[in-house]
């Protein structure tokens, strides 16, 4: 494996670690938010009431639905820029090849 391949592998590993950290942070934020909204008592021994459990279920579902919608929206915003970058690369390759 040459130096460039090792650098690419290192970058991929760093990106994966960043994604894992982002997912962990998102989970903690979701847990804290839903717990704050839904858990009415401080008593951890008795467990959740049915109302609290349903509330948490709905909260998590809404939170995850929102995250999916945001990912779709961000992807839609990025697509034109990615397409333009690809077109610029094609034009540059064409220019370099004398086309």
From TrEMBL:
> Which UniProt key words apply to this protein?
Chaperone, Disulfide bond, Membrane, Mitochondrion, Mitochondrion inner membrane, Protein transport, Translocation, Transport
Domain of life of the organism encoding this protein: Eukaryota
**What is the membrane topology listed in the Swiss-Prot or TrEMBL record?**
Peripheral membrane protein
Q: Which SUPFAM superfamilies match?
A: Tim10-like (SSF144122)
Location(s), subcellular: Mitochondrion inner membrane
Pfam families on file: zf-Tim10_DDP
Q: For the Tim10-like domain, which residue ranges apply? A: 12-70
Subcellular location, principal: mitochondrion
Family classification: Belongs to the small Tim family.
Summarizing the function annotation, the protein's role is: Mitochondrial intermembrane chaperone that participates in the import and insertion of some multi-pass transmembrane proteins into the mitochondrial inner membrane. Also required for the transfer of beta-barrel precursors from the TOM complex to the sorting and assembly machinery (SAM complex) of the outer membrane. Acts as a chaperone-like protein that protects the hydrophobic precursors from aggregation and guide them through the mitochondrial intermembrane space.
- Describe its partners and assembly state: Heterohexamer.
- Domain notes from UniProt: The twin CX3C motif contains 4 conserved Cys residues that form 2 disulfide bonds in the mitochondrial intermembrane space.
Name of this protein: Mitochondrial import inner membrane translocase subunit
| Taxonomic source organism | Oikopleura dioica
């Amino acid at each position: 494996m040459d130096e460039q391949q090792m650098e690419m592998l290192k970058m991929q590993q760093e990106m994966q670690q960043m994604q894992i950290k982002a997912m962990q942070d998102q989970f903690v934020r979701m847990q804290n938010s839903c717990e704050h909204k839904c858990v009415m008592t401080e008593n951890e021994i008795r467990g959740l009431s049915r109302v609290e459990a349903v509330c948490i279920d709905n909260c998590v579902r809404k939170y995850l639905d929102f995250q999916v919608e945001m990912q779709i929206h961000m992807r839609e915003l990025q697509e034109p820029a990615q397409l333009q970058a690809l077109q610029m690369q094609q034009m540059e390759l064409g220019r370099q090849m004398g086309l």
